[in-house]
Specification:
Helix content: 55-70%
Number of helices: 2
Number of strands: 2
Largest sheet: 2 strands, antiparallel
Strand order of the largest sheet: 1-2
Order of helices and strands: HEEH
Structural class: mainly alpha
Shape: elongated
Radius of gyration: 27 Å
Length: 75
């Protein structure tokens, strides 16, 4: 095997590993970000107190979340 062909072979292997590493480095965080924003915790429809009266509803939770986001309190 000539010196030039060994060098070319090494460069091809290096190029392939760089592409694979680059793909994983961008693909994995993208998958994790997608999973984070699509898998929200469940919001109960109603919370009942000790006296069987509703304390708050799921709509109240969503309204409170909107207030927090509007005022920048989630940062």
């Amino acid at each position: 095997m000539s010196r030039k062909s060994r060098r070319t072979s090494y460069l091809k292997k290096t190029d392939t590993s760089c592409r694979a590493r680059w793909t994983v480095q961008f693909l994995l965080p993208g998958i994790l970000a997608y999973w984070t924003y699509t898998n929200e915790p469940p919001i109960p429809s109603k919370i009942i107190g000790a006296d069987d009266q509703p304390l708050f509803t799921g709509e109240d939770v969503l309204a409170g979340r909107a207030v927090f986001r509007k005022n920048g309190l989630t940062e």
